Amino acid sequence: MATVAECERVQTAWFRARAETLGGECLIEDGLVWTDGPDGMNLMFPEDPTVDALRRGVARAQGRGCGLVGAWLGAEVDERPLAEAGFERGWAPCWMSAELTETPVADDPRVVLVREPGSIAGDFEQERLGLARIEPPIAWCAVARDAESARFAGRAWSFRSGAHAGIFDMAVWPPFRRRGLGTGLLAAVCAAAARSGAREAVLNATPEGESLYSRCGFTRVGTGITWWRHLAGR
Predict the structure, then answer these.
(1) Which pLDDT value is given to residue 15?
(2) Please, is 114 exposed, middle or buried when counting C-beta atoms within 10 Å of its C-beta (0-12, 13-18, 19+)?
(3) Best CA proximity match to 67, nearest among 86, 41, 49
(4) Which of 96, 71, 99, 75 is nearest to 85 (CA)?
């Protein structure tokens, strides 16, 4: 069973890969790890953040035109500097883990792995598929289509870091939920990571997603917390 620290390590590696592959950057300053990715600046699991260091990170995000700064924390970290630096407490990620041999079999014909822009449609940022074209492969994107309308219905990512595979950005659009597509997406990205040599999957679940992951073999290993700073005028 993965530890919370291993979940946090895989999460950090994913955010770094997104930043470095998609035109952002990873910065280490004042002992803090910041990633500038496609959805804003993120501070990854600081152990002892200071108010001054946090404010410098926010100023850098403003200079880069970011509209949102996120901070991912372990449950034991002192949150008071985040509040003093203008962040607001957000949702609490539920860290979960599963052996890849225990996850569902990938056999849903509505779900496929994709690598190239133009192979999918809908409200999906196709430039992120650059992650799926890293060689040797370390990231996989699955998309789901509704069987009746053929419309784009959801997507999920997996990312291998050593023996662990992180499951990220999994979503099924509201009109297509409760049709098994979430299970199909999860199975597809888990299977892709397993074929590359990963042995265990980790993820952070929202309260709404935890029940699905529990049915698919995942077990809660701990809880974290997020803080967010929305930048004015962005």
Answers:
(1) 96
(2) middle
(3) 41
(4) 71
Distance CA 17, CA 39 (A): 13
pTM of the model: 0.93
Please state, in angstroms and as integers, the Cα–Cα distance from residue 148 to each residue in 45, 120, 151, 174, following that order. 43, 16, 8, 15
Domain count, the chain: 2
Q: Where are the beta strands (DSSP E) in 110-218?
A: 111-114, 139-145, 152-161, 164-172, 200-205
pLDDT at 48 over 90: yes
Domain limits at 135? 97-220
Instruction: State whether the Cα torsion 49-53-59-64 is positive or negative.
Output: negative
Residue for token digits 């041999």?
101
Helices (H), the chain: 4-21, 51-63, 80-84, 181-195, 207-215
Whether residue 214 sits in one domain with residue 139: yes
Binned at pLDDT 50, 70 and 90, residue 217 comes out as: very high
Q: How confident is the model at residue 119 (pLDDT cuts 50, 70, 90)?
A: low
78 and 45 within one domain: yes
Q: What does the mean pLDDT of the chain come to?
A: 92
Same-domain status, 204 and 127: yes
